């Protein structure tokens, strides 16, 4: 399911139908509008199309609006009906609402009010359908399109759960937020979502790290420039190019506050204005954002808007770091060995049997980026038979140096010095390293300057 936006206008007056379609196209640009002038065709049109909303006249030849209302409510209960009629009778209006109409408008009513109601009804239908679909899919616990996850190898139950969740929410009109450290597979998840929701449409990835508001607007919204001679030059942005595909906004935590306000407008109103234009254009794409930052803590520091945070969090995927996915290690190493060997035109070397146990305590701060780099390095240095493990050992050793405590580096003579001697030696060393600056020496030794001064005086 995409956004609920298909509307059928039913009225026996062709000129009214035409003008209503034009007005709604202008005021609710995200809607896709069909018209039907013959009440006998309504049943057929509903069977062929999945309409979110029907705007229905009451008095028509062949079938009255009230008969059609009853038929639509029983045959297409997920379709909402708004009565738009010249009949200004309270009794009729009450009867229609009781029989399931979403709202009732008189043709002379303000058309802006009608447009607002149409937009609200589309949102209600979208949310209802979305909720039902997520519930059905998530409860089934079966992956319907496992091929969408072909590039994400895992046997970790926590990640397999995320596959099911992504499949359930991929068609939702709400945005998805993917969070996780660098290299945990956020881009791969966004690509899987593209496969699941709109594989035949474009996938556009925009990295927001370091972007300013103007650059964001130009890149995402595009620009219209009117020259002095009246000629208009248009430079399309990502929202135009992506059409009904997927827009992936990478590093959303880096977006400046002013640009966040523009983005929330896009998500809320499903429309955007190119720079220099006051004409709204509809947004038809799916939006995924990703972050390495803790957006809640950025929000507390006033660097991330609450409204954007809560809209993005409607569907949230959190990817665990590689250090919490050690079950996957061996499989990922083999996968990257094959990738590397393929790319370098070499025979794929074997993974040493004990490699993963040697890596058991290594944290992989760079996650899969780091593992991939190590394996590629190991393949390029290998003899074609066994993977060269030098890059892994270098990383483990570098990691261990960081973990060494100062006391591990001290070596003692056979006969131990007294505490007083060690204390004096430490003070002398600190004073000599700091050119007799007591404040700096005290900081080095972890005591106050007055405490150091007392000790020095006592020694004298
Ligand atoms: N489960 C996986 N199986 C196989 N390859 C993977 C898996 N997850 C990620 N990769 C690969 O690891 C590398 C890093 O993944 P990816 O770029 O998706 O991470 P990221 O979280 O988006 O990183 P960054 O925050 O730096 O953009 C990529 O080459 C990707 O193809």
Small-molecule binders here are: adenosine-5'-triphosphate
Structural class designation:
alpha/beta
Number of strands: 14
CATH class identity of the largest domain: Alpha Beta
Largest sheet: 5 strands, parallel
Radius of gyration: 33 Å
Q: Approximately how much helix is present in the residues?
A: 40-55%
Query: Ends: how far apart?
Result: 85 Å
Mean pLDDT: 89
Number of domains: 4
Low-confidence stretches: none
User: How would you name the CATH homologous superfamily of the largest domain?
Assistant: P-loop containing nucleotide triphosphate hydrolases
Shape: elongated
GO molecular function, one term: DNA-binding transcription factor activity
Organism: Shewanella psychrophila
Keywords: ATP-binding, DNA-binding, Nucleotide-binding, Phosphoprotein, Transcription, Transcription regulation
Protein name: Response regulator with CheY-like receiver, AAA-type ATPase, and DNA-binding domains
Describe what this molecule looks like in 3D.
This protein is of the alpha/beta class. It folds into four domains: 6-133, Rossmann fold (3-Layer(aba) Sandwich), CATH 3.40.50.2300; 150-320, Rossmann fold (3-Layer(aba) Sandwich), CATH 3.40.50.300; 323-403, Helicase, Ruva Protein, domain 3 (Orthogonal Bundle), CATH 1.10.8.60; 416-459, Homeodomain-like (Arc Repressor Mutant, subunit A, Orthogonal Bundle). The protein has helices spanning 14-27, 42-48, 65-75, 90-98, 111-140, 157-169, 186-198, 213-221, 238-241, 257-269, 295-300, 306-312, 329-344, 355-358, 367-380, 390-403, 406-409, 419-433, 438-445, 449-459; strands at 6-10, 32-36, 53-56, 80-85, 103-106, 176-179, 203-207, 222-226, 232-236, 246-250, 271-272, 281-282, 286-291, 315-318. The mean pLDDT is 89. The site of adenosine-5'-triphosphate has 17 residues, from α7, α13 and α15. It comes from Shewanella psychrophila. This is Response regulator with CheY-like receiver, AAA-type ATPase, and DNA-binding domains.
């Amino acid at each position: 399911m995409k956004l609920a936006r298909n509307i059928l206008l039913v009225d026996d007056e062709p000129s009214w139908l035409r003008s209503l379609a034009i007005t709604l196209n202008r005021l609710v640009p995200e809607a896709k509008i069909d018209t039907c002038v013959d009440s006998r065709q309504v049943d057929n049109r509903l069977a062929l199309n999945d309409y979110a909303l029907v705007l229905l006249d009451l008095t028509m030849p062949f079938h009255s609006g009230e008969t059609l209302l009853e038929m639509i409510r029983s045959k297409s209960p997920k379709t909402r009906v708004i009565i738009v009629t010249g009949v200004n009778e309270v009794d009729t209006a009450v009867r229609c609402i009781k029989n399931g109409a979403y709202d009732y408008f008189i043709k002379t009513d303000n058309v802006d009010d009608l447009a607002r109601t149409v937009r609200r009804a589309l949102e209600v239908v979208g949310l209802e359908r979305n909720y039902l679909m997520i519930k059905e899919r998530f409860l089934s616990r079966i992956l319907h399109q496992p091929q969408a996850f072909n590039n994400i190898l895992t046997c970790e139950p926590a990640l397999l759960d995320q596959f099911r969740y992504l499949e359930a929410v991929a068609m939702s009109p709400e945005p998805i937020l993917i969070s996780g450290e660098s290299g945990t597979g956020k881009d791969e998840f966004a690509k899987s979502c593209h496969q699941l929701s709109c594989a035949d449409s474009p996938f556009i990835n925009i990295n927001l790290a370091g972007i300013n508001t103007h650059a964001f607007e130009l890149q995402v919204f595009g620009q219209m420039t009117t020259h002095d001679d009246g000629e208009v030059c248009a430079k399309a942005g990502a929202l135009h190019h992506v059409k009904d595909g997927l827009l992936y906004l990478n590093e959303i935590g880096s977006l400046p506050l002013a640009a966040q306000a523009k983005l929330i407008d896009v998500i809320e109103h499903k429309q955007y204005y190119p720079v220099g234009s006051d004409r709204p254009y509809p947004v038809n794409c799916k939006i995924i954002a990703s972050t390495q930052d803790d957006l809640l803590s950025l929000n507390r520091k006033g660097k991330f808007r609450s409204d954007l945070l809560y809209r993005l969090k409607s569907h949230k995927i959190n990817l665990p770091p590689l250090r919490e996915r050690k079950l996957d290690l061996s499989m990922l190493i083999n996968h990257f060995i094959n990738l590397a060997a393929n790319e370098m035109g070499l025979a794929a070397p074997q993974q040493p049997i004990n490699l993963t146990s040697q890596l058991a305590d290594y944290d992989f701060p760079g996650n899969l980026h780091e593992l991939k780099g190590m394996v590629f390095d190991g393949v390029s240095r290998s003899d074609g038979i066994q993977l060269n493990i030098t890059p892994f050992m270098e990383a483990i050793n570098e990691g261990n140096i960081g973990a060494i405590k100062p006391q591990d580096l001290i070596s003692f003579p056979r006969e131990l010095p007294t505490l007083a001697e060690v204390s004096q030696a430490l003070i002398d060393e600190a004073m000599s390293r700091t050119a007799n600056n007591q404040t700096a020496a005290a900081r080095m030794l972890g005591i106050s300057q007055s405490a150091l001064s007392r000790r020095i005086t006592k020694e004298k």
